[in-house]
Amino acid sequence: MPIPLYPEFAPVSLEMREELYPSLNLIKDGISEFNFSNLYLFRRTYGYRVSRVPGRTFVVEGSKQGKSFFYVPCAVPDKETMASLMASHDYLKNLSDSQAEAHRLEIESWGYQVEEDRDNFDYLYDRKDLAELSGKAYHKKRNLVNAFLNSYSYEQKPLDKSNVPDAIAVLDEWRAQKGFDGDYAAAREALELFDVLGMRGCVYYVDGAPAGWCLGEPLAKARMFAVHFEKACDRYKGIYQFINQAFAQSLPAYIRSVNREQDLGDEGLRQAKMTYRPSGFVKKYRVLKGEP
Known about the structure:
This protein is α+β, with helices and mostly antiparallel strands. It has helices at 17-25, 36-41, 43-46, 79-88, 97-109, 127-132, 139-151, 164-178, 184-192, 239-250, 267-274; strands at 10-11, 49-53, 57-64, 67-71, 91-96, 112-116, 122-126, 154-158, 200-206, 209-219, 224-232, 257-259, 280-282, 284-289.
Protein backbone atom coordinates (compact mmCIF):
# COMPACT_ATOMS: atom_id res chain seq x y z
CA MET A 1 0.00 0.00 0.00
CA PRO A 2 1.20 3.58 -0.59
CA ILE A 3 2.56 5.57 2.32
CA PRO A 4 -0.25 7.79 3.68
CA LEU A 5 0.00 11.53 4.24
CA TYR A 6 0.61 12.78 7.77
CA PRO A 7 -1.12 12.53 10.25
CA GLU A 8 -2.14 9.09 8.95
CA PHE A 9 0.30 6.20 9.47
CA ALA A 10 0.50 2.69 8.01
CA PRO A 11 2.54 -0.36 9.12
CA VAL A 12 5.82 -0.85 7.25
CA SER A 13 5.31 -3.30 4.38
CA LEU A 14 7.52 -4.73 1.66
CA GLU A 15 5.59 -2.77 -0.95
CA MET A 16 6.86 0.50 0.57
CA ARG A 17 10.48 -0.21 -0.41
CA GLU A 18 10.11 1.39 -3.84
CA GLU A 19 8.95 4.64 -2.23
CA LEU A 20 11.30 4.69 0.78
CA TYR A 21 14.55 3.27 -0.56
CA PRO A 22 15.62 6.12 -2.90
CA SER A 23 15.19 8.83 -0.24
CA LEU A 24 16.84 6.81 2.53
CA ASN A 25 19.76 5.90 0.26
CA LEU A 26 20.57 9.60 -0.29
CA ILE A 27 20.98 10.36 3.43
CA LYS A 28 24.64 11.24 3.97
CA ASP A 29 25.04 10.66 7.72
CA GLY A 30 24.96 6.86 7.55
CA ILE A 31 22.63 6.17 10.49
CA SER A 32 22.27 2.38 10.64
CA GLU A 33 18.50 2.46 11.24
CA PHE A 34 17.79 4.69 8.26
CA ASN A 35 17.49 2.09 5.53
CA PHE A 36 14.51 0.15 4.35
CA SER A 37 15.78 -3.30 5.36
CA ASN A 38 16.26 -2.25 8.99
CA LEU A 39 12.80 -0.67 9.17
CA TYR A 40 11.20 -3.72 7.59
CA LEU A 41 13.07 -6.41 9.52
CA PHE A 42 12.44 -4.76 12.90
CA ARG A 43 8.89 -3.64 12.11
CA ARG A 44 7.42 -6.05 14.67
CA THR A 45 10.07 -5.38 17.33
CA TYR A 46 9.27 -1.66 17.45
CA GLY A 47 5.84 -1.57 15.81
CA TYR A 48 7.10 0.67 13.02
CA ARG A 49 4.53 2.68 11.08
CA VAL A 50 5.22 5.24 8.35
CA SER A 51 3.73 8.53 7.21
CA ARG A 52 4.76 11.14 4.65
CA VAL A 53 5.07 14.91 4.92
CA PRO A 54 4.86 16.03 1.27
CA GLY A 55 8.01 17.63 -0.08
CA ARG A 56 9.75 17.34 3.29
CA THR A 57 10.34 13.97 4.90
CA PHE A 58 8.98 10.61 5.93
CA VAL A 59 7.98 10.04 9.54
CA VAL A 60 8.53 6.65 11.15
CA GLU A 61 6.93 5.99 14.52
CA GLY A 62 7.54 3.16 16.94
CA SER A 63 7.80 2.30 20.60
CA LYS A 64 10.44 0.92 22.96
CA GLN A 65 10.11 0.04 26.64
CA GLY A 66 6.68 1.63 26.80
CA LYS A 67 7.78 4.95 25.30
CA SER A 68 6.66 6.14 21.87
CA PHE A 69 9.17 7.76 19.51
CA PHE A 70 9.45 8.95 15.94
CA TYR A 71 12.16 9.39 13.30
CA VAL A 72 12.35 12.12 10.66
CA PRO A 73 15.20 10.68 8.56
CA CYS A 74 15.19 13.00 5.56
CA ALA A 75 14.54 16.45 7.07
CA VAL A 76 13.36 18.28 10.19
CA PRO A 77 9.65 19.05 9.78
CA ASP A 78 8.14 22.51 10.07
CA LYS A 79 7.26 23.93 13.49
CA GLU A 80 3.56 23.00 13.31
CA THR A 81 4.20 19.39 12.26
CA MET A 82 6.94 19.06 14.87
CA ALA A 83 4.57 20.31 17.57
CA SER A 84 1.96 17.77 16.52
CA LEU A 85 4.47 14.91 16.53
CA MET A 86 5.98 15.87 19.88
CA ALA A 87 2.51 16.12 21.39
CA SER A 88 1.61 12.58 20.28
CA HIS A 89 4.99 10.90 21.04
CA ASP A 90 7.37 10.84 23.98
CA TYR A 91 10.46 11.89 22.00
CA LEU A 92 12.14 12.23 18.63
CA LYS A 93 14.81 9.56 18.19
CA ASN A 94 17.91 9.56 15.95
CA LEU A 95 18.12 13.18 14.95
CA SER A 96 21.25 13.10 12.79
CA ASP A 97 24.44 15.06 13.38
CA SER A 98 23.88 17.17 10.27
CA GLN A 99 20.27 17.88 11.29
CA ALA A 100 21.39 18.85 14.79
CA GLU A 101 24.09 21.13 13.41
CA ALA A 102 21.68 22.88 11.05
CA HIS A 103 18.54 23.02 13.21
CA ARG A 104 19.48 22.68 16.89
CA LEU A 105 18.99 26.36 17.75
CA GLU A 106 15.72 26.43 15.83
CA ILE A 107 14.40 23.29 17.57
CA GLU A 108 15.42 24.64 20.97
CA SER A 109 13.71 27.95 20.19
CA TRP A 110 10.52 25.93 19.74
CA GLY A 111 10.85 24.83 23.37
CA TYR A 112 12.43 21.38 23.00
CA GLN A 113 15.65 19.89 24.39
CA VAL A 114 18.27 18.35 22.09
CA GLU A 115 20.67 15.90 23.72
CA GLU A 116 23.30 13.41 22.55
CA ASP A 117 22.19 9.77 22.66
CA ARG A 118 25.57 8.07 23.24
CA ASP A 119 24.07 4.60 23.71
CA ASN A 120 22.81 4.76 20.11
CA PHE A 121 25.94 6.14 18.42
CA ASP A 122 26.96 3.87 15.54
CA TYR A 123 30.59 2.72 15.59
CA LEU A 124 32.57 3.53 12.44
CA TYR A 125 35.74 1.71 11.40
CA ASP A 126 38.11 2.31 8.54
CA ARG A 127 37.58 -0.62 6.17
CA LYS A 128 41.33 -0.98 5.58
CA ASP A 129 42.01 -1.13 9.32
CA LEU A 130 39.60 -4.05 9.73
CA ALA A 131 40.88 -5.77 6.61
CA GLU A 132 44.57 -5.49 7.50
CA LEU A 133 44.63 -5.51 11.34
CA SER A 134 48.11 -3.98 11.21
CA GLY A 135 50.02 -2.35 14.07
CA LYS A 136 50.21 -2.87 17.84
CA ALA A 137 46.59 -1.87 18.42
CA TYR A 138 45.38 -5.01 16.64
CA HIS A 139 47.98 -7.44 18.02
CA LYS A 140 45.45 -9.50 20.02
CA LYS A 141 42.98 -9.60 17.13
CA ARG A 142 45.69 -10.80 14.74
CA ASN A 143 46.69 -13.54 17.17
CA LEU A 144 43.11 -14.82 17.37
CA VAL A 145 42.72 -14.73 13.58
CA ASN A 146 46.03 -16.52 13.08
CA ALA A 147 45.09 -19.16 15.65
CA PHE A 148 41.83 -19.73 13.76
CA LEU A 149 43.61 -19.96 10.40
CA ASN A 150 46.16 -22.41 11.81
CA SER A 151 43.53 -24.61 13.44
CA TYR A 152 40.88 -24.97 10.74
CA SER A 153 40.33 -25.35 7.03
CA TYR A 154 37.97 -22.56 6.01
CA GLU A 155 36.04 -21.29 3.02
CA GLN A 156 34.20 -18.02 2.33
CA LYS A 157 31.26 -17.96 -0.10
CA PRO A 158 29.08 -15.01 -1.14
CA LEU A 159 25.57 -15.39 0.25
CA ASP A 160 23.15 -16.64 -2.39
CA LYS A 161 19.93 -18.62 -2.41
CA SER A 162 21.78 -21.93 -2.47
CA ASN A 163 23.54 -21.40 0.86
CA VAL A 164 20.81 -19.60 2.80
CA PRO A 165 19.89 -22.94 4.50
CA ASP A 166 23.52 -23.22 5.70
CA ALA A 167 23.33 -19.72 7.21
CA ILE A 168 20.02 -20.58 8.89
CA ALA A 169 21.63 -23.70 10.41
CA VAL A 170 24.30 -21.45 11.96
CA LEU A 171 21.59 -19.09 13.21
CA ASP A 172 19.73 -21.99 14.82
CA GLU A 173 22.90 -23.11 16.59
CA TRP A 174 23.61 -19.54 17.68
CA ARG A 175 20.15 -19.31 19.28
CA ALA A 176 20.58 -22.66 21.02
CA GLN A 177 23.97 -21.57 22.39
CA LYS A 178 22.63 -18.26 23.67
CA GLY A 179 19.47 -19.72 25.16
CA PHE A 180 17.31 -16.81 24.01
CA ASP A 181 15.91 -15.50 20.74
CA GLY A 182 17.50 -12.03 20.61
CA ASP A 183 17.24 -10.81 17.01
CA TYR A 184 16.67 -14.34 15.65
CA ALA A 185 13.39 -13.54 13.85
CA ALA A 186 14.81 -10.46 12.11
CA ALA A 187 18.03 -12.27 11.20
CA ARG A 188 16.20 -15.24 9.72
CA GLU A 189 13.91 -13.01 7.66
CA ALA A 190 16.97 -11.05 6.48
CA LEU A 191 18.49 -14.27 5.16
CA GLU A 192 15.26 -15.32 3.46
CA LEU A 193 14.76 -11.90 1.81
CA PHE A 194 18.36 -10.67 1.36
CA ASP A 195 18.02 -10.30 -2.42
CA VAL A 196 14.64 -8.55 -2.26
CA LEU A 197 16.01 -6.13 0.37
CA GLY A 198 19.22 -5.42 -1.56
CA MET A 199 21.54 -6.83 1.10
CA ARG A 200 24.83 -8.67 0.57
CA GLY A 201 26.80 -11.01 2.74
CA CYS A 202 29.04 -14.05 3.06
CA VAL A 203 28.75 -17.53 4.53
CA TYR A 204 31.79 -19.13 6.20
CA TYR A 205 32.59 -22.82 6.37
CA VAL A 206 34.99 -24.63 8.70
CA ASP A 207 36.20 -28.08 7.69
CA GLY A 208 33.33 -28.15 5.17
CA ALA A 209 30.56 -27.35 7.69
CA PRO A 210 28.67 -24.02 7.88
CA ALA A 211 30.13 -22.03 10.77
CA GLY A 212 29.25 -18.35 10.38
CA TRP A 213 27.77 -15.62 8.24
CA CYS A 214 27.67 -11.86 7.90
CA LEU A 215 25.04 -9.66 6.23
CA GLY A 216 24.54 -5.95 5.63
CA GLU A 217 24.20 -3.23 3.02
CA PRO A 218 25.76 -0.03 1.69
CA LEU A 219 24.76 3.30 3.27
CA ALA A 220 25.53 6.98 2.67
CA LYS A 221 25.65 6.72 -1.13
CA ALA A 222 27.75 3.54 -0.86
CA ARG A 223 30.65 5.22 0.96
CA MET A 224 29.83 3.12 4.04
CA PHE A 225 28.76 -0.47 4.64
CA ALA A 226 26.53 -1.32 7.61
CA VAL A 227 26.91 -4.78 9.11
CA HIS A 228 23.40 -5.60 10.34
CA PHE A 229 23.93 -9.24 11.32
CA GLU A 230 26.95 -11.37 12.19
CA LYS A 231 26.45 -14.86 13.60
CA ALA A 232 28.83 -17.76 14.19
CA CYS A 233 29.29 -21.02 16.06
CA ASP A 234 31.27 -20.25 19.21
CA ARG A 235 32.92 -23.67 19.25
CA TYR A 236 35.44 -22.36 16.72
CA LYS A 237 37.84 -20.13 18.67
CA GLY A 238 38.60 -16.88 16.89
CA ILE A 239 35.82 -17.22 14.34
CA TYR A 240 34.25 -13.83 15.03
CA GLN A 241 37.59 -12.06 14.66
CA PHE A 242 38.21 -14.03 11.46
CA ILE A 243 34.80 -13.14 10.00
CA ASN A 244 35.24 -9.47 10.90
CA GLN A 245 38.52 -9.32 8.97
CA ALA A 246 37.53 -11.59 6.08
CA PHE A 247 34.30 -9.72 5.40
CA ALA A 248 36.08 -6.35 5.44
CA GLN A 249 38.54 -7.78 2.92
CA SER A 250 35.64 -8.89 0.69
CA LEU A 251 34.13 -5.40 0.45
CA PRO A 252 34.92 -3.29 -2.65
CA ALA A 253 37.64 -0.63 -2.31
CA TYR A 254 35.19 2.26 -2.75
CA ILE A 255 33.66 1.38 0.64
CA ARG A 256 35.62 3.60 3.02
CA SER A 257 34.00 2.83 6.35
CA VAL A 258 32.28 -0.08 8.06
CA ASN A 259 29.37 0.78 10.35
CA ARG A 260 29.01 -1.84 13.07
CA GLU A 261 25.99 -0.23 14.71
CA GLN A 262 25.44 0.79 18.34
CA ASP A 263 26.16 -0.75 21.74
CA LEU A 264 22.76 0.19 23.26
CA GLY A 265 24.47 1.03 26.54
CA ASP A 266 25.71 -2.54 27.10
CA GLU A 267 29.09 -2.07 28.81
CA GLY A 268 30.52 -5.40 27.62
CA LEU A 269 29.49 -4.71 24.03
CA ARG A 270 30.90 -1.18 24.28
CA GLN A 271 34.28 -2.49 25.41
CA ALA A 272 34.31 -5.09 22.62
CA LYS A 273 33.52 -2.48 19.99
CA MET A 274 36.18 -0.12 21.33
CA THR A 275 38.89 -2.81 21.07
CA TYR A 276 38.61 -2.51 17.29
CA ARG A 277 39.64 1.16 17.54
CA PRO A 278 36.73 2.99 15.87
CA SER A 279 37.73 5.77 13.49
CA GLY A 280 34.66 7.73 14.57
CA PHE A 281 30.97 7.57 15.38
CA VAL A 282 27.70 8.30 13.64
CA LYS A 283 26.27 10.58 16.29
CA LYS A 284 22.57 10.60 17.07
CA TYR A 285 20.45 12.91 19.20
CA ARG A 286 17.14 12.78 21.02
CA VAL A 287 14.68 15.64 21.07
CA LEU A 288 12.69 15.83 24.29
CA LYS A 289 9.81 17.95 25.43
CA GLY A 290 10.87 21.10 27.28
CA GLU A 291 10.23 21.68 30.95
CA PRO A 292 6.58 22.61 31.59
